């Protein structure tokens, strides 16, 4: 029977933006340096254009994707496999924005399939551990010619002026639909739940350690890549529907995200039982124990990240701790 697996930090090196200290603080072990702002948890995908970088490995050295593919029903459950095959449908990250991220967007599945031959697009959601400003969507309709001019001239002030700015605090969450231009502000620290792809189209790169003119369009050229952009002006109340303030349990993320993934913040003061199913646990505070069905208890503490297979059955979680449980969509 497959058992829960405690996963070590998996931080792709030399990213083009700064961060990493908050991941080290949370996990107590992580890569050194100031350009390791992401920890890819239970990853079955790679960085765009890479053969291995980004894939998670178990403590015994095996690749997580290979372990899942070897016994998908044990890991994902028969209903999931019947609906999606051995695809986990999920990638979880810790992301520490040591500086404001550039304005960018992620394509949806139809665009990714048509232009990149990818199974998924990249919807994502952020559970906020440390807050600050985030930029979400345009606040007015933007003409494609105007967008082209902003990108070509790297007119960042104009881009940001045309976007909604939302202040988020710990315990909030934000859903980012495919196509929506966005940027995470400096100092924001998140648990990110997303479709398992690394597909980013940069609208901004000035001042960042990347050649955006060459690398910011997924090899498609901006004439094609920018077709993935949601250019419409989002009313403030619609942006508000993407942001959940202090959500718990099933209400942690916006309902719109459920077709792509699920996540719930759980605060456990003594004991709780979690239903069976593939999930990724990120412990954000406290300490306790994790007990799968018909197995012994193991310690669970702040900074632990655990891949839980369907075959582990119902889980008993004891102690005093807070965690984010991330799951694929309901089949």
From TrEMBL:
A Gene Ontology MF term for this entry? kinase activity
Q: Which UniProt keywords apply?
A: Kinase, Metal-binding, Transferase, Zinc
Q: Which SUPFAM superfamilies match?
A: RmlC-like cupins
Q: Where is the Mannose-6-phosphate isomerase cupin domain?
A: 258-326
Kinase keyword on record: yes
Check the record and name the InterPro entries matching this protein. Answer: Carb_Metab_Reg_Kinase/Isom, MPI_cupin_dom, RmlC-like_jellyroll, RmlC_Cupin_sf
Keyword Aminoacyl-tRNA synthetase part of the UniProt annotation: no
Among PANTHER family, the record links this protein to: FRUCTOKINASE, TRANSCRIPTIONAL REPRESSOR MPRA
What protein am I looking at? Phosphohexomutase
Organism, as annotated: Arthrobacter mobilis
């Amino acid at each position: 029977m497959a058992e829960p697996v405690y996963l070590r930090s998996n931080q792709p090196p030399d990213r083009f933006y700064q961060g990493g200290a908050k991941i080290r603080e949370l996990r107590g072990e992580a890569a050194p340096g100031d350009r390791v702002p992401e920890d890819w948890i239970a990853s079955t995908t790679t960085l765009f254009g890479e053969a291995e970088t980004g894939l998670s490995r178990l403590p015994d050295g095996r690749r997580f994707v290979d372990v899942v593919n070897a016994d998908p029903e044990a890991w994902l459950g028969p209903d999931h496999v019947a609906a999606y095959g051995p695809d986990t449908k999920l990638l979880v990250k810790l992301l520490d924005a040591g500086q404001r991220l550039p304005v960018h967007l992620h394509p949806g599945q139809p665009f990714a399939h048509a232009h990149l031959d990818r199974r998924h697009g990249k919807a994502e959601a952020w559970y906020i551990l440390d807050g600050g400003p985030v930029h979400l969507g345009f606040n007015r309709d933007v003409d494609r010619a105007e967008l082209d001019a902003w990108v070509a001239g790297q007119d960042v002030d104009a881009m940001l002026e045309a976007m909604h700015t939302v202040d988020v605090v710990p315990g909030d969450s934000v859903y980012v639909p495919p196509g929506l231009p966005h940027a995470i502000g400096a100092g924001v620290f998140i648990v990110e739940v997303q479709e398992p792809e690394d597909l980013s189209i940069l609208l901004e790169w000035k001042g960042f350690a990347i050649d955006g003119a060459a690398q910011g369009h997924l090899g498609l050229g901006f004439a094609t890549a920018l077709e993935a952009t949601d250019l419409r002006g989002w009313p403030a109340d619609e942006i508000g529907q993407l942001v959940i303030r202090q959500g718990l349990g099933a209400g942690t993320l916006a309902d719109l995200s459920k077709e792509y993934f699920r996540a719930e913040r759980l605060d456990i003061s003594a004991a709780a039982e979690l239903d069976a199913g593939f999930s990724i646990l990120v412990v954000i505070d406290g300490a306790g124990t994790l007990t799968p069905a018909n197995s012994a208890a193991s310690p669970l503490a702040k900074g632990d990240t655990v891949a839980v297979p369907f075959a582990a059955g119902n889980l008993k979680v004891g102690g005093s701790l807070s965690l984010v449980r991330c799951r694929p969509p309901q089949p």
